Amino acid sequence: MDISLSGSVTVVPPKVRSIEEDVDLFGGNIRQIERLKKTLGLNERRIASNELTNLDLCEQAAQVLLEQLNIQSSDLDGIIYVTQTPDHSQPSNAALLHGRLACSTECAALDIGLGCSGFVYALWLAYSIIANGSSQRVLVLAGDTLSRLVHPKDRATASLFGDAGSATMVEKRSEAGASWFRLGTDGRGADSLIVPAGGARLPFSEETAVETSDADGNIRTKENLFMDGSEVFNFSIEVVPREIEALLSDAGASKDAVDYFVLHQANRYMVHNIGKRLRVDLERCPVDSFGAFGNVSSASIPGALAYELADVLSGKCEGKSSHQVVLSGFGVGLSWGTCLLNIPHLGCLEWRAYKA
Question: How many domains does the chain have?
Fold first, then answer.
């Protein structure tokens, strides 16, 4: 069965914070700021206000997408929502969005609690649901407001993470062709990316709110996101190239046949290192959206598609009627998801700032 994306919209908060505004975090060292800009591609990120949640961002993305594709919410058979920053522990963000969009009661809705790999996982599930014949059209939402989980004095995370929400339509399309997925998890690395407190294992308390400083001078509490940068980097450059090579082997496809390798936008240095290990032209590995949005978790891949490939994938540029694209997300879990998709021209692919 031929299944594909038909459109995608990413919505980011209107508030922009530049890397220069974080200069105090690095002891006022402007040269350090310039090194980070050059090496990691850090320029600015989008930060949600206290009143703005990821549900708000994804709702607006969904409304724009439905309008642009001329699809009624009653036509949706499923809603899959990827987030680690839901509005409530229960009910799910998917159920809340279902109500906001006034979907049919026959539309299934569920959350996936994943981060950077979550968009590919959600696509895999959406494709599988449609392939088994039970659904025609599934809406995938992906995004987080991770800026609220980082400590402002933690140099390992504070300047990296931004906020965004996305909506992507998956449906039957006769011109789509075959698709391929590979997913994986290594829970032994769970402590490399973790928010220790706030769940049933360690509820919020006075003790979890106490600030501590590590050997590198990074300050955080157990209620903040902890990232072991070197471990995550080593994991990423080892696993991701291997998985992409295996995926292409499964599909019987060559790297030369792939138009774009759209990787999770962790930072420019990581994306370029993965591209070099794959021995592919780095121009086929988009990375500029990281400099505009920051690391926006599960929204980073749809954000990169919208920020850098909108004209190409929407058919506004002369050329092919469809494109072979590898998508690869990797991170918290530790987990990873990679897919090879044939994407015909999309009816809508854009990003925009949230409008209240």
Answer: 1
Residues noted as catalytic: 116, 264, 295
Specify the CATH number for the domain of residue 51.
3.40.47.10
Is residue 142 within 8 Å of 83, Cβ to Cβ?
yes
Percent helix, strand and coil across the chain, each rounded to 5? 35, 25, 35
Nearest to 84 by CA among 140, 27, 142: 142
Do residues 329 and 336 touch, judged by C-beta distance below 8 A? yes
Q: How far is CA 108 from CA 2, 129, 131, in A?
A: 21, 11, 16
d(CA 64, CA 351): 10
Report the pLDDT value the prediction gives residue 1, as an integer from 0 to 100: 58
Structural domain of 308 = 1-356
Whole-number pLDDT of residue 247? 97
Residues of the chain with pLDDT under 50: none
- Residue pointed to by tokens 């994407």: 343
Query: Alpha-carbon distance 160 to 293, whole Å?
Result: 9
Q: What DSSP string runs through 91-134? A: S-HHHHHHHHHT--TTSEEEEE--STTHHHHHHHHHHHHHHTTS
Maximum pairwise Cα distance, the chain: 60
Q: Is the distance from CB of 326 to CB of 262 less than 8 angstroms?
A: yes
Query: Is 320 within 8 Å of 258 (Cβ atoms)?
Result: no
In this structure, which amino acid lies at residue 321?
Answer: S
Angle between the 118-131 and 300-308 helix axes, to the nearest 10 degrees? 90
Instruction: Say if residues 23 and 36 touch (Cβ distance below 8 Å).
Output: no
Cα 265 to Cα 262: distance, rounded to the nearest angstrom: 8
Q: What is the pLDDT of residues 29-54, one digit of tens each?
A: 888 888 888 889 989 999 999 999 99
Cα dihedral sign, 254-255-257-260: positive
